Amino acid sequence: MGKLNEVIDETWESFERVISATELFAEMAQMRARSQFRQEDVGLLVMYAAEFARERARGEKRGVRVELSMEENVKGRRVPLEPRIFRRALDEVLSNAVKYTPDGRAAHVRVWLEESWLAVETRDEGIGVPADKLEKVFDPFFSLEDFHQHVSSQYKFKGGGIGMGLTLARLALESHGGTLKLESVEGQGTTVTMRLPLKAAV
Q1: Residues contacting residue 132 through CB under 8 Å, at least 6 positions apart
Q2: Does 91 reside within a domain?
Q3: What is the dihedral of CA 17, 104, 55, 51, to 10 degrees?
Q4: Any domain includes 202
Q5: Which of 48, 133, 152, 183 could lock 10 by a disulfide, CB 3.0 to 4.6 Å apart?
Q6: How many domains does the chain have?
Q7: Pairing mode, if any, of strands 189-197 and 117-124?
Q8: Residue 45's domain is classified under what CATH number?
């Protein structure tokens, strides 16, 4: 019964993530002008997201470190955004970093200012993405996992997901006038760089 309960819990969690993702897609589609975003402390949002990833990794008994570095001038810096949507983008990118990084290695998060942008980079020491699949990872429902070995927890090594994480994250950044760029070397790891404009578009 223990294994069955675990499968049921993971299936239900996956179902809840599908519902949540659907709601966010609808919300992004209906978003008004970016001038209506709230001024939010991005440093705090990234800190909370990194700690959440650490807690989830520990909960799955993963030996993956989540290390955070932040430039001093980022601390307390407020940027116009919708906090729920941006935080979901952070969570999706960080869960991928943990999921594809073997135990004993790390996911590194760096935050800095770059001219008129605030940048958040997540670099993992994971298995990387094959060159021919770099653009496919943004396709809805695409997954790198072998479904024969699929598990639903998004923090287990090569664990399952709904195949919407990076799709949602990129759309979330674009809805804020920002960008999301992915670079990867198979066998060495993946770097995801998110950029947010420091000022809302008029």
Answers
A1: none
A2: yes
A3: -100
A4: no
A5: 152
A6: 1
A7: antiparallel
A8: 3.30.565.10
- Dist. CA 171–CA 198, nearest whole Å: 18
Q: Contact 178/194 with Cβ under 8 angstroms?
A: yes
Residue 176 lies in a domain: yes
Looking at residue 200, what is its pLDDT?
Answer: 72
- Retrieve residue 74's tokens: 């980022």
Indicate whether 168 belongs to any domain: yes
- 18-43 pLDDT, tens digit per residue, is 445 555 555 655 555 454 689 999 99
DSSP character string of 12-29: HHHHHHHHHHHHHHHHHH
**Mind listing the pLDDT tens digit for each residue in 59-99?**
999 999 999 999 999 999 999 999 999 999 999 999 999 99
d(CA 198, CA 39): 10
Residue-wise pLDDT for 43-56, tens only, equals 999 999 999 999 99
d(CA 190, CA 183): 6
Cα–Cα dist 165/187, whole Å = 21
pTM of the entire predicted model: 0.78
Domain holding 115, by residue range, is 2-197
Count how many residues are written for the chain. Answer: 202
